[in-house]
Write a structure and sequence with these properties.
Number of helices: 28
Helix content: 55-70%
Strand content: 5-15%
Largest sheet: 5 strands, mixed
Structural class: alpha+beta
Shape: globular
Distance between the termini: 62 Å
Strand order of the largest sheet: 3-4-5-9-6
CATH topology of the largest domain: Neurolysin, domain 3
Number of strands: 9
Number of domains: 4
Bound molecules: zinc ion
């Protein structure tokens, strides 16, 4: 442990207790992070020279490497989100490549890799516990997938492939951005904006000014305004979606829709060639690593046991969703006819009529709900729920830890004996000038037992963007915000209630990607449980709980058009899997043929022949979702199934809920990444996952 005299007054170099959030400044970042990286590099070098293939002689020392960075780097990343400034951004940018480089050096160290493999194959392996084995297995897997196990020509080829793939990914993204930018629809006649929400009018006028300021000025025209226009519609989602939902000009909707589905599919921004090349290289990469397809490579890092298991989930969902989606379409067609549309329902009509139907069936606005959800009540409800389920106490500790803003609160989590097991910061209010929007959870410290035996307990960050209270009026939350808070707190709980002492698999660390949302989505479910929701809703003026009528609307809105929405997700997920598994790049067919074939069964309303959706499928061609798009549905199915255990036991049976809550704590939350996720699921549920609860929750089964 360093004392503060050797830190040169730089709080990022102090390693005792909680980081000095009240003293960290942008000027500390470059020297603090650099000094720490130097230290880590030296430790790694020594480790490489001296390592022994044993837990203490290798893994424990490897784990120690990440500790100094939790002090020096985690606060910097956190401040980028909650205390941003030009100076901080500059400093962050300066050291970021060095941080990435150091992480890669550790992950791709050949001596470390060989030591880990020797440990796994040696006699000591038998004496390691489940979580220790996971640490080793995951480290070996990640190193192998980074090509560390390859030598000679295959190693060189691997590096080449990675380099080309990374370039192709950014080319794909750039084409997509440029193609998106190249389209606009300018609406100048105010009559054509009839029915638009005010927010769309404002956004579109602003967009017009951004794109055409110069030319308007030269022509002596005034600036566009929300009331007077002109309005500019683009293919960016915040513009596209409300336009398609509200524009009554059918021909304009058609033009925008056609532009959307052919983005980046021709001319100078054509992504078709990139798609084929990416698929070819990914296949080659998988083969170099000894796997037949890229999907198999991706699934080695995931919970889903096989491509077949993913297909099985899709098949079960398909049978339930298809008839519902057909019914959804019929409802829209009927409404369109009643609404005076003489032409048959087309692809550019569905969002428009779906929005009309939603308004008719259960229109409510977030503004209507807000008065019932004052933030202090919601937080209290959330904390009491966590206490009830998981047998912990959550207490605010004012002044017990340094804060970066005076509104930030600090809480401790105590176990049933009153012993602190974790703590978290709540940064509740929005500060647009320096804080990112939305809600999210992050980690300051993972739980870990240090080499000298000291136990570091987890410290989490929970962030939201509530309106700060004004006078006696508290911060009021919309329902979506409430749900997101529960979700993020679920992630934080998994970080805090872990029992694992090895940082690499403690809490959410090391959890497979398709299993990481289980605990968070599980918590969301409670927002649809009437007594729970009503229990913490309280009108800030009258104290009334949320009226039943509004609760019913929220519940019905949740499952609205769910069959159609899931089918759409399935189209993307099945195409993704087919392209990375069965599809043979360079063979007789094209990727587009695969997409078309999948779409035939997944789209209730046939797609246009010119549909080129793949050219804008950035999730899999420029993001991290390749052969992993299914994860969204997979984790929802699992979290629904986990919650169903509570429903089966009886949500009103307090003793049963308590007992199951303990079980959830002791499995999902306590084990985290320290056990195989399928095994964790089985230990909680006593069986394999099933799609039944997901289908029921989404109103996809005939009752
Ligand atoms: Zn999440």
């Amino acid at each position: 442990m360093r004392d503060t005299t050797s830190t040169g007054g730089n709080p990022l170099l102090e390693r005792k207790g909680i980081p000095a959030f009240d003293r960290i400044r942008p000027e500390h970042v470059v020297p603090g992070v650099r000094a720490t990286l130097g230290e880590v590099a030296a430790l790694l070098e020594r480790l490489e020279a001296e390592l022994e293939p044993s837990w203490d002689g290798l893994v424990k020392r490897l784990e120690e490497l990440s500790f100094p960075l939790e002090y020096a780097w985690n606060p910097v990343q956190h401040f980028m989100l909650v205390k941003n400034s030009d100076e901080l951004r500059k400093a962050h940018q300066e050291v970021l490549p060095e941080v990435v480089e150091t992480h890669l050096r550790v992950k791709q160290s050949r001596p470390v890799y060989e030591g880990l493999v020797a440990l796994r194959e040696g006699d000591a392996w038998e004496s390691l516990d489940e979580a220790q084995r996971r640490v080793v297995e995951i480290a070996i897997r990640d190193a192998r997938h980074a090509g560390v196990g390859l030598t000679g020509e295959s190693r060189e080829r691997f590096v080449e492939i990675e380099r080309e793939l990374s370039k192709l990914g950014s080319d794909f993204q750039n084409h997509l951005l440029d193609a998106t930018k190249a389209f606009e629809l300018v609406v100048s006649d105010p009559a054509d904006t009839k029915g638009w929400p005010e927010s769309l009018r404002a956004l579109a006028a602003q967009s017009y000014n951004q794109a055409h300021a110069e030319e308007a000025k030269n022509a002596g025209r005034p600036e566009a305004t929300a009331e007077r226009g002109p309005w500019r519609i683009t293919l960016d989602f915040p513009s596209y979606r409300p336009f398609m939902e509200h524009s009554r000009r059918r021909d304009q909707r058609e033009a925008v829709y056609r532009a959307m589905i052919t983005r980046a599919s021709g001319g100078e921004f054509d992504n078709n060639g990139i798609i084929e090349r990416v698929l070819e290289l990914r296949r080659e990469k998988a083969e170099l690593l000894g796997l037949p397809t890229y999907a198999e490579l991706s699934l080695e890092e995931k919970m889903a046991p096989s491509v077949e298991a993913v297909e099985k989930m899709y098949d079960e969902l398909f049978v339930a969703c298809r008839p519902k989606a057909e019914q959804d379409l019929e409802d829209l067609a009927t409404l369109a006819r009643e609404g005076g549309q003489s032409e048959p329902l087309a692809l550019w009509d569905t969002l428009f009529w779906a929005e009309r139907l939603r308004e008719r069936r259960f229109e409510y606005t977030e503004a209507e709900l807000r008065p019932y959800f004052p933030m202090p009540k919601v937080l209290e409800g959330l904390f009491r729920l966590a206490e009830r389920l998981f047998d912990v106490r959550i207490l605010e500790r004012k002044g017990a830890a340094p804060v970066w803003n005076e509104d930030v609160q600090y809480f401790e989590v105590l176990d049933r004996e009153g012993k602190p097991v974790a703590s978290f910061y709540l940064d509740a209010y929005s500060r647009p000038a320096e804080k990112q929007g939305g809600a999210w959870a992050g980690e300051c410290f993972s739980r870990r037992r240090r080499i000298d035996g000291e136990l570091i307990t987890p410290v989490e960050f929970v962030n939201c963007n509530g309106t700060p209270p004004v006078g006696s009026k508290p911060s009021l939350m919309g329902f979506e915000e409430v749900k997101t808070l529960f979700h993020e707190f679920g992630h934080a709980l998994q970080g805090m209630l872990t029992k694992v002492d090895y940082a690499d698999v403690a809490g959410t660390n090391g959890i497979e990607w398709d299993a990481i949302e289980i605990a968070s989505q599980f918590m969301e479910n409670w927002c649809y449980h009437r007594p729970t929701l009503k229990g913490f809703s309280s009108h800030y003026e009258t104290g009334e709980p949320l009226p039943d009528e509004l609760f019913e609307k929220i519940v019905r809105a949740k499952t609205y058009r769910m069959g159609s929405l899931i089918l759409r997700q399935m189209r993307f997920g099945k195409t993704d899997m087919a392209l990375h598994h069965a599809y043979q790049p360079g063979g007789s067919g094209t990727a587009r043929d695969v997409d078309r074939k999948v779409s035939e069964s997944m789209s209730v309303l046939p797609l246009l022949p010119e549909d080129q959706f793949l050219c804008s499928f950035a999730h899999i061609f420029a993001g991290g979702y390749a052969a992993g798009y299914y994860s969204y549905l997979w984790s929802e199915v699992l979290s629904a199934d986990a919650f169903a255990a509570f429903e089966e036991a009886g949500l009103e049976d307090a003793a049963a809920v308590r007992a199951l809550g303990r079980k959830f704590r002791d499995t999902f939350l306590a084990l985290g990444g320290g056990a195989d996720p399928m095994e964790v699921f089985r230990r909680f549920r006593g069986r394999e996952p099933s799609t039944a609860a997901f289908l029921r929750h989404n109103d996809l089964v005939e009752s």
